[in-house]
Recover the amino acids of this structure.
């Protein structure tokens, strides 16, 4: 699954942090930080193992039905049970293949990093990137710019716009932090 990206300008000029068209006056910024958003690999594995267990039960039921079908008294009933069981077995195999492909896709997702800027209100996820070093440098530069009124900088960052509104991260005073990305 490809994520929609955009090149976004991140800059400080005249004591304002600009992230694309969004403006954050430096004097209002209380904190800036980078959060890692790893894929939910453990959850994907749990879902996969649960599905495989369900498919194994369905497959066992289909195999029992295939073996029992010839012992039925009615020839027409025997054929119907056998055909239904073979169809169910084919469905189980197809579902297993689809689940395995889905697991591989979820397991190989890359880790993303989000830049958060916290003002007097709630934290704002301003951009998401795969470049952890650049986002960490941005945090340092933003904090340096708060203390240095003459500082200006400009970066172009590849922003994963589809992930910017992803849920799952709480930041602030006494709240907990859950950094697992659960994008679909």
């Amino acid at each position: 699954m490809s994520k929609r990206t955009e090149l976004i300008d991140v800059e400080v000029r005249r004591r304002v942090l600009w992230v694309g068209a969004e403006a954050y006056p430096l004097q209002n910024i209380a904190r800036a930080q980078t959060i890692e958003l790893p894929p939910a690999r453990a959850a994907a594995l749990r879902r996969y193992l649960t599905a495989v267990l369900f498919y194994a039960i369905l497959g066992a039921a289909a195999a029992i039905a295939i073996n029992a079908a010839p012992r039925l008294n009615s020839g027409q009933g025997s054929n119907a049970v056998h055909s239904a069981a073979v169809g169910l077995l084919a469905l189980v195999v197809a579902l297993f293949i689809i689940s395995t492909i889905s697991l591989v896709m979820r397991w190989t997702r890359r880790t993303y990093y989000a830049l958060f800027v916290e003002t007097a209100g709630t934290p704002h996820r301003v951009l998401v990137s795969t470049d952890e070093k650049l986002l960490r440098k941005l945090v340092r530069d933003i904090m340096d710019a708060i203390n240095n009124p003459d500082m200006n900088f400009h970066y172009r960052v590849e922003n994963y716009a589809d992930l910017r509104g992803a849920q799952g991260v709480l930041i602030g005073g006494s709240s907990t932090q859950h950094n697992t990305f659960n994008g679909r």
